């Protein structure tokens, strides 16, 4: 009985240390989104290229568009301001 409790304690400690050491996945805004067909706004933004988005949209009554988060981020940043 004591060995079973000790084994459970060791497994609990290993599991807790594994969970504490893991980091969440980094969020990444892909440049193309599927929009329309009930997706809402901005849609399913998980496509790296326009061709990949169009292939996924084929036959589904949806369309591909630029991810607004990516587009407005580029607009907000603008040209870099280099000062020497």
Please specify the SSE layout and strand pairing:
Blueprint (H helix, E strand, L loop, with lengths): L1 H20 L10 E4 L8 E4 L2 H8 L5 E4 L1 H10 L7
Antiparallel strand pairs: 1-2, 1-3
Radius of gyration: 23 Å
Question: What is the subunit organization of this protein?
Answer: single chain
- Helix and strand content put the structural class at alpha+beta
The secondary-structure element order is HEEHEH
User: How many E strands?
Assistant: 3
Q: Roughly how many Å apart are the termini? A: 72 Å
Q: What is the general shape? A: elongated
Which whole number gives the mean pLDDT?
78
The fraction of residues assigned to DSSP E strands is 5-15%
Task: Please explain how this structure is put together.
The chain has helices at residues 2-21, 50-57, 68-77; strands at 32-35, 44-47, 63-66. The chain starts with a helix and ends in a 7-residue tail after the last helix. With 84 residues, the protein is α+β, with helices and mostly antiparallel strands. Strands 2-1-3 form a three-stranded antiparallel β-sheet.
Brief overview, please?
Keywords: Signal. By secondary structure, this protein is an alpha+beta fold.
List keywords for this structure.
84 residues; alpha+beta
């Amino acid at each position: 009985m004591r060995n079973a409790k000790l084994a459970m304690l060791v497994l609990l400690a290993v599991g807790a240390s594994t969970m504490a050491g893991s980091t969440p996945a980094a969020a990444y805004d892909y440049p193309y989104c599927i929009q329309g067909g009930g997706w809402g706004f901005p849609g399913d933004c998980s496509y790296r290229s326009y061709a990949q988005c169009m292939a996924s949209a084929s036959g589904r009554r949806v369309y591909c568009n630029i991810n607004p988060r990516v587009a407005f981020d580029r607009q907000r940043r603008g040209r870099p301001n280099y000062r020497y």
